[in-house]
């Protein structure tokens, strides 16, 4: 019979997992609607004085700004999270992200205030990046550090569920406003998904306010194992883990924005496919990802997390050529089928990524280590993916983009393999001995 204490512990763990999932879903929603708007709207609204192709590139460059700000967010919020705790940092990141997103929804256009409009868009995009720089790592740690040892992988997977959940919600919003006539969509329709973020943030803040602090952080604090300057300690004691973590995160970060931003733009402009069809396709693969990730976590519990990650990445690599054949065919059924195949591969790996990175770092520098690995990857790879893919498309054509995509997948495969060998058997909960 369960004791009162075990019941309360179970409730705390569930609240931690739910709080991590809901908040991460909201922040991914904010990021995805920006990416979708960058592909469909921002070039016309904020950069109207350049050619359509240049407008898309300028829009994607603005998109990248959010990723460039993520390492700084990782350093700032990682420092606070490793020094002061996970909970309050997660409340702050959610508030910052939601506030910046809602303000984008009321931002005047270039036609109204001139060059100040894209400048303000860049500033708000940077605020989003700062928030996400701390959000993903904090949510990962809140969920995994609060879970039982045997359930850490599944807890981490629920953090990863925030990505498809945010994508589903973002796609639904743009499917609704995307059905408006082009004039209404460009005038005011695109603003609705951004303004809706304010409602989501209120819900998320209520849920997160009830989450208790991670017990692993409290134990580190109790034993005086909190380090003075976590970012310095991370690069002194575990620099290789940071850079391997960057490599291991490549596909997880790049794939989402390859599909939801670059592919959306390419198919609806140069390839002339209907906007609503592609939004429907993105909606379908987000559902596939949401369903498949927990199943992959269960499989990992039986055959091993690293094995599932490597097999999933190999599936993604094998599907690169068929995917691009499907894109160039213009056949929406073929395209959806191949996007689902690549999603099965990508999601199978992505479901494990949170717990995989969290297990690599000691508890007292874990927030900073995970935030830096994820943030640096986002800055170098994630935000640049649509911009580089569009540039490669302009210079080398579709198969040049296929090579670029295959390189990203291969780099991820090698980094996951190397990191798994380096951390095999490591006691990552052993703290770095640098006391306050």
TrEMBL record:
Gene3D superfamilies: MFS general substrate transporter like domains
Record bears the keyword Cell membrane: yes
Highest rank taxon of the organism: Bacteria
CDD domains cross-referenced by the UniProt entry: MFS_ShiA_like (cd17369)
Major facilitator superfamily (MFS) profile domain span: 16-424
PROSITE patterns cross-referenced by the UniProt entry: MFS (PS50850)
Organism: Arthrobacter ginkgonis
The name this protein goes by in its record: MFS transporter
């Amino acid at each position: 019979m369960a004791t009162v204490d075990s019941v309360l512990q179970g409730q705390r763990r569930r609240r931690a997992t739910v709080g991590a999932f809901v908040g991460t879903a909201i922040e991914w929603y904010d990021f995805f609607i920006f990416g979708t708007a960058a592909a469909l709207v921002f070039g016309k609204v904020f950069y109207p004085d350049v050619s359509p192709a240049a407008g898309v590139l300028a829009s994607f460059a603005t998109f990248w700004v959010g990723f460039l700000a993520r390492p700084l967010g990782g350093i700032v919020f990682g420092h606070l999270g490793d020094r002061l705790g996970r909970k309050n940092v997660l409340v702050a990141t959610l508030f910052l992200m939601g506030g910046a997103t809602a303000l984008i929804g009321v931002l005047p256009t270039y036609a109204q205030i001139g060059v100040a409009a894209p400048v303000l868009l860049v500033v708000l995009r940077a605020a989003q990046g700062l928030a996400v720089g701390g959000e993903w790592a904090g949510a990962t740690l809140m969920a995994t550090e609060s879970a039982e040892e045997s359930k850490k992988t599944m807890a981490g997977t629920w953090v990863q569920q925030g990505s498809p959940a945010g994508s589903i919600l973002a796609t639904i919003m743009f499917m609704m406003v995307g059905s408006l006539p082009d004039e209404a969509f460009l005038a005011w329709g695109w603003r609705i998904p951004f303004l809706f973020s304010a409602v989501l943030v209120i819900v998320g803040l209520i849920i997160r306010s009830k989450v208790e602090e991670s017990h692993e952080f409290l134990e580190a604090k109790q034993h005086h194992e909190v380090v003075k300057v976590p970012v310095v300690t991370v690069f002194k004691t575990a620099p290789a883990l940071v850079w391997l973590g960057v490599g291991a995160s490549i596909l997880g970060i790049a794939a989402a924005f390859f599909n939801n931003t670059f592919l959306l733009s390419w198919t609806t402009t140069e390839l002339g496919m209907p906007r609503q069809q592609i939004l429907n396709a993105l909606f379908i693969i987000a559902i596939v990802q949401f369903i498949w990730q927990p199943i992959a976590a269960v499989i990992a519990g039986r055959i091993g997390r690293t094995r599932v990650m490597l097999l999933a990445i190999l599936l993604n690599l094998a599907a690169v050529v068929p995917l691009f054949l499907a894109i160039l065919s213009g056949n929406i059924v073929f395209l959806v089928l191949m996007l689902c195949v690549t999603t099965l591969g990508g999601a199978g790996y992505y479901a494990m990524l949170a717990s995989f990175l969290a297990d690599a770092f000691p508890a007292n520098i874990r927030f900073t280590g995970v935030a830096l690995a994820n943030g640096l990857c986002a800055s170098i790879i994630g935000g640049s993916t649509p911009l580089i893919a569009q540039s490669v498309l302009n210079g080398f054509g579709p198969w040049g983009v296929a090579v670029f995509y295959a390189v990203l997948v291969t780099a991820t495969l090698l980094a996951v393999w190397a990191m798994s060998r380096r951390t095999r058997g490591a006691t990552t909960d052993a703290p770095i001995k640098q006391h306050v």
